[in-house]
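Translate sequence into structure tokens.
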Amino acid sequence: MDRRAKILGPVDPATARGLEIGPLDKPLVRRDEGESVWYADYTDTVSLKAHYTEHQHVYHDHDPAKFVDVDFVLSDGPLRELAKDVAPFDYVIASHVIEHIPDLVAWFDDLSSVLVPGGRVCLAIPDRRYCFDARRASTELADVVAAHLEQRTRPSPRAFFDFAWSFAPVDGPSAWRGDLSDDVLEHVADVYRRVRDSMHEDADYQDVHVWAFSPQNLETILNALGAIELTDLRIEHLTETEPGGNEFYARLVRRERTSPVGPIVFGIANAELQQAQAEREALREELARSRHDHSRLRHPVRSARHLAGRLRRLWGRRS
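Result follows.
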């Protein structure tokens, strides 16, 4: 099954009306598949092309000349207002978008407002364990709720600091092998200054990974938000990240706010907790072995005398 099929699931773009957020030059659904898809991004097409052309050394995997035309500029207002003449949609696609959103609850609410009942949100999400977020802890429900109560429109200083300080230059395959460098890319004092300066009213928007997700903790957070009735989006399908990969897929469906939700796991989700416990146990065993070996190396004479004494006592018993 190809990536598009994994993201869309049962959605058929040929017969359904859809919205894709942040498609750039790689939309999952193209207009020539029935012209029932619209595109949204944080700014207009001309500005996107200019930005990506200027920073081509960073965005080398994108071709600005192939960017699709943006229909709705998200910085101009909520989707419910921008798309009111063409909504509702049967589906919304967002690939590698959710991790950038300052207020997840408000975003989910906005997406739901442009969906038909039973409409789907199809997400591709970087797995924090296998991308440059590998040094970060998984996002906690408390941070998501706090961002909503604070009505965040920008990443919080905490999220910005965590992203910049913990950034790990790693790709999916190397992370799966455990090849995670301990190198720090930026001095902590420089990170602090950047975060402090970003808090000024006239400071430029800092686009970072606000959230660090794995399939397990995203499931916990979505189910908890449903239990609080902060969202009417429910998990329909959630995948695990494939070995060697760095992303997973979630499909959410619009239901009544009082509809049932899945289980809520407190703290880290079960799979991550088991993994962490196994890693800690392996580390304890390794440390215990190293302390034993180190002790014998530090005291070779004492160890030899101890062994000789045991041999003499053993020989004496046999005599």
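Note: The two ends are 76 Å apart (CA to CA).
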